[in-house]
From TrEMBL:
A Pfam family reported for this protein in Swiss-Prot or TrEMBL: MFS_1
Annotated Gene3D superfamilies: MFS general substrate transporter like domains
UniProt keyword list: Cell membrane, Membrane, Transmembrane, Transmembrane helix
Membrane topology: Multi-pass membrane protein
Residues annotated as domain Major facilitator superfamily (MFS) profile: 1-422
Species of provenance: Brevibacterium salitolerans
Region of interest (Disordered), ranges: 175-231
Matching InterPro entries: MFS, MFS_dom, MFS_Efflux_Transporters, MFS_trans_sf
Transmembrane domains' residue ranges: 30-51, 58-75, 148-167, 239-262, 274-293, 305-324, 330-351, 363-386, 398-417
Tagged with keyword Transmembrane: yes
Location of this chain's protein in the cell: Cell membrane
Biased composition (Acidic residues): 181-194
Main subcellular location of this protein, as a coarse class: membrane
Protein name according to UniProt: Major facilitator superfamily (MFS) profile domain-containing protein
Length: 426
């Protein structure tokens, strides 16, 4: 989850230097981020479906491999076109991250613990923002974007090796344990969760006895009946409403994330290192917030109510940033980004917890892919809205107003989600 958005986080942390070094406008900079998420959104539905079918280790290798390739392409030539080409490569890598991690949680974590696990999982994104905010401005100041890209390639390479080793160890432990627990002599497949139905049902069947395997999770090679195609269960309305919530919330959060550093440099005259530190602090606050909200989501039945509260925080944050542009009040800027980090930026953990709870067994990847598509299309639109507002109107206020209106729309969708949930329980 940290690797997927590292390219755009690195660009955001170095945004003022990138726009100056490459001779591009704020709108052109925003277009790079937009292309990343547009490609991620277009890829999400397909890759979410693949997440239910191909081995987890392969998916992890694809995510890290594409990100490494993207960074290397970005420094293949000192041109804006190279940055755009890198964005095209980085987009699909982001699309894979959410479905595969949701699938891992659905297949290995008991339902009562998924909220907390989802909080840590979604915090990976903020760890990426923290890493970029702490390191990129200083490395960029010494070696420019080329130095930043090479640093990120090195870190991603190390994480790929570590991730592969951890997943391999988990696989071997499960392969050794399952025959003893189930009393079966048949060999366990190399990737026991390589079909989405087993991943979804394992989580739902966490309460099964130690000697039982939940229905529908037997190895297809052992049961010929399992090879027959299963009828597809339609996704419930709640999943579609959650996808819309993810889209609208993402417009607001990525609009702020992409331009917060540039806003601080241009509005309150922060040096790039201090602006990067602000991004790092947003990352820390986001980690804390996502774990707090993840635990709350594990205890509160109404995800819709939590989403409403979080979007009200986003509206307040957007209002604060509007005032900052005209008053240059630094404390108010910090209050606004704190609201942003603790409320709307953490909504993803609640949305993803609700998706895992709402999706039918065997369609966790598909539902997660749909929600990831909505989220990524929102991430694509947010920077585009902000960049166009700055280029056309010469200031940030029109963009902040638009983001506030989008948060209000997300609040309205969450109200509809709450009503749909009440009708479903009747």
């Amino acid at each position: 989850m940290a690797a997927g958005p590292l390219f755009n986080f690195a660009l955001a942390a170095l945004s003022s230097q990138v726009t100056a070094d490459y001779g591009i406008t704020e709108g052109q900079y925003g277009l790079i981020i937009t292309i990343v998420f547009l490609l991620a959104g277009l890829s999400s539905a397909l890759l979410g479906n693949l997440a239910d079918r191909i081995p987890v280790r392969v998916q992890i290798a694809v995510i890290f491999g594409l990100m490494i390739a993207g960074f290397l392409v970005s420094i293949s030539a000192p041109t804006y076109a190279a940055l755009l080409a890198a964005a095209v490569i980085a987009g699909p890598a982001q699309a894979f991250a959410n479905p595969v991690t949701n699938r891992i949680i659905a297949g290995t974590v008991p339902p009562e613990k998924r909220g907390a696990w989802m909080g840590w999982k979604q915090s990976g994104v903020q760890f990426g923002l923290l890493f970029a905010g702490v390191t990129v401005p200083f490395v960029g100041g010494l070696a420019g974007w080329t130095g930043v890209a090479l640093m990120c390639v090195s870190v991603l390479g190390v994480l790929l090796v570590l991730g592969w080793l951890v997943l391999t160890r988990m696989q071997r432990a499960r392969t050794t344990r399952e025959p003893v627990e189930t009393g079966e002599d048949a060999p366990v497949p190399e990737e026991p969760d390589s079909d989405g139905s087993s991943a979804a049902v394992t989580g739902a069947g966490a309460g099964a006895g130690a000697g039982e395997r939940p229905a529908g999770t037997d190895d297809p090679a052992e049961d010929p009946a399992q090879k027959a195609p299963r009828p597809r269960v339609p996704l419930p309305p709640a999943v579609w409403l959650l996808a819309l919530c993810a889209f609208l919330n993402a417009v607001g959060t990525q609009g702020v994330n992409a331009y917060a550093s540039l806003f601080a440099v241009q509005t309150v005259d922060y040096p790039i290192e201090l602006a990067g530190t602000m991004l790092a602090i947003i990352g820390v606050l986001g980690i804390v917030a996502r774990n707090v909200w993840g635990r709350i989501a594990g205890r509160v039945r109404s995800a819709a109510l939590l989403i409403q509260i979080m979007n009200l925080g986003g509206i307040l944050a957007a209002g604060g940033l509007i005032v900052v542009e005209h008053t240059h009040l630094v404390p108010l800027m910090w209050a606004a980004v704190t609201l942003h980090a603790f409320f709307p930026l953490a909504a993803n953990v609640v949305i993803n917890s609700a998706v895992v709870a709402s999706a039918p067994a065997g369609r966790i990847g598909v539902a997660s892919g749909l929600v990831a598509a909505g989220m990524n299309f929102g991430f694509a639109l947010g920077p585009l809205v902000m960049g166009l507002g700055i280029d056309v109107f010469g200031g940030y206020t029109p963009g902040w107003i638009t983001l506030g209106a989008v948060y209000l729309g997300c609040y309205a969708v969450a109200v509809a989600l709450s009503r749909a949930g009440r009708r479903g329980r009747r």
